[in-house]
Design a protein that fits this description.
Length: 118
């Protein structure tokens, strides 16, 4: 059984460092990304969906939603971040989905469940 944090740590490493190789040789082999902008009562909302395919055959979807009402001085801007396992080939991944209301909580979760990422 693998923990979803292992995959999210690889995704975070790619976003922050530009590569996906880890000590366990788990890496992203393909990703597809879509963006959508919506206007809701004078608030612009950015919705992003990224589907990651990993070297072990696992497919994970990440959805992020953020609006322009967030204060730029906040250390952790409010956003809605969702991860969901769409497919796993050999091992069960737990949890199958997770939700965060900001990037700081996401990073804390990765460090707690996947401390080797540090």
């Amino acid at each position: 059984m693998k923990h979803l944090a292992e995959y999210v740590a690889v995704i975070d490493r790619v976003n922050s460092q530009g590569h996906s190789q880890t000590s366990h040789h788990l890496h992203i082999i393909q990703q597809t990304q879509t963006h959508e902008h919506q206007q809701e009562q004078n608030i612009q909302v950015l919705k992003e969906k990224i589907v990651y395919e990993f070297s072990d055959g696992t497919i994970i979807e990440k959805r992020v939603e953020q609006d322009n009402e967030c204060l730029e001085i906040e250390a952790c801007l409010e956003s809605w971040i969702n991860y969901q396992v769409l497919y796993h080939s050999n091992e069960l991944i737990t949890p199958q989905r997770i939700h965060f209301d900001n990037h700081c909580r996401e990073m804390h979760w990765i460090k707690y469940f996947h401390p080797l990422n540090n």
